Amino acid sequence: MKLKIKLKLFVHPSLKYKQMKITYLLIIAFFTFGVAQAQDCERIVKDCEELLKSSDNGKDFISDGQVYTAFLDREKAEFKTIFYGGATYRLAASAGSRENFVIFTIKDQEGNILYSNRNYRNSPYWDFKVDNTIPVIITTELDLDLKVTGCVVMLIGFNN
Amino acid sequence: MKRFKFQLLALPVIGCLSLYSCEDENPIEDDTIDKEVFDPNSALNTIFDGKIFSIPSPVQTAYLIKNLDLSFDASLGNDVKNVGEYVTEYQQSLNLGVYGADLGYSALYDQKNITLQYLSVVQNLTNQLGLDAAFSSEFLENFEMNSENEQEMIQLMSEAFKQADNFLKHANRKQTSALILTGGWIESINFACQLNAKNPSDKIKRRIGEQKQTIGSIIDILREYNSENQNDTIIKQLEELKLSFDKVMITYEFVAPDTDQENKLTNLRHKSEVIIEDSVINEIENKIKTIRSSIIKV
Q1: Who among A30, A38, A82 is closest to B214 (CB)?
Q2: Are B213 and A82 in contact (CB under 8 A)?
Q3: Which chain A residues are Cβ-neighbours of B267 within 8 angstroms?
Q4: Mean pLDDT for chain B?
Q5: Beta-carbon contacts of residue B50 (< 8 Å; ≥ 6 apart)
Q6: Tell me, what's the ipTM?
Q7: Collapsing DSSP states into helix, strand and coil, what is residue A80?
Q8: β pairing state of A76-83 and A87-94
Q9: For B63, how many CA atoms within 13 A lie in the half-sphere containing its CB?
Q10: What is the mean pLDDT of chain A?
């Protein structure tokens, strides 16, 4: 509603200065929000990288070379990947300063739930030992009791 | 007017600082956005990756090959002399993926000289693609310092490719990212096909067949990020390849996983079989060879 009122003022010829100011403020607001969002995501990537370190056998997990990022607002991000047989995978997820912001769920292609960190206090990482190759669908979402919107980062590491 | 300009310049700085300084003080409040500002139709508020794609790392197939005790075959990789011929971003991106897979393969087999040659061409291409930050001089020093330690080299290489992927996605150069992933995937499947042709192995055949589950993602990612229809030819080739993969049968039987909460570990215990005839393997091998030739040609 506020935005509509501002737009009416925007076209008034006697308010040229205000018009300029509002335009600049809007641009700056979007710019500032965009920069902050990018910085936020970058910081979260760094946090998430830490979660791929030190497995039980003392070897860090090897990244699959990709960074999975989504800006979520009360929605879910979903992607398909493959876990190859004979490897152990680590999924790590982060959405900010707290470790338990993200809920991730893994399903097989038939829709059977293989794992959800929701059952384990939103654990920020979990390992999966895979005997036979399996295509999986990974869904990530924010725990809306803790955070409603923001950048979510997921990393996948493996050990052979 | 000067004051107004100063205010305009100061605002984004103050805005950024205030947003930054609030971090961690009260995570729950700070991580929400004022509902008045929020507009669900704003481009800023949509998932900026739209679809999220995942392509398995080519290093994983190199590990499988090494675990089968197959000897290193230097002729499998792309010739390092070709690198100077790749002048367009399209060629450079695909061949960065190809050389990245070659680098991983030679590093795993502890082929120091060959590995350093591949490292040099990877550095050359990343410089041209503006990815110097990921493949920095620090990375190169670390890599060379660990050239006796295959595990560390693989770790460093995978980290560098991850940083490059992150940079490209943030810079909205997702087509470049997609082409690098595609080049790496093609090269790793070519390794598997060529080695299987020389020494047929059920494990390699199975790994080739399992790519039926990845080729769809490769085609999707190339379609999604297809600036000026540059990917049209390779998409057609991959669609043709997919017809062969469609002949691979994969069975699946769900078995409930077993979770060890203390160690944060879940064992996936399902059963699956990959059924692939030799004639189909040959088809895939030939088509992969053709696609790879068109990528590396000079």
Answers
A1: A82
A2: yes
A3: 128-129, 131
A4: 85
A5: B224
A6: 0.79
A7: strand
A8: unpaired
A9: 19
A10: 82
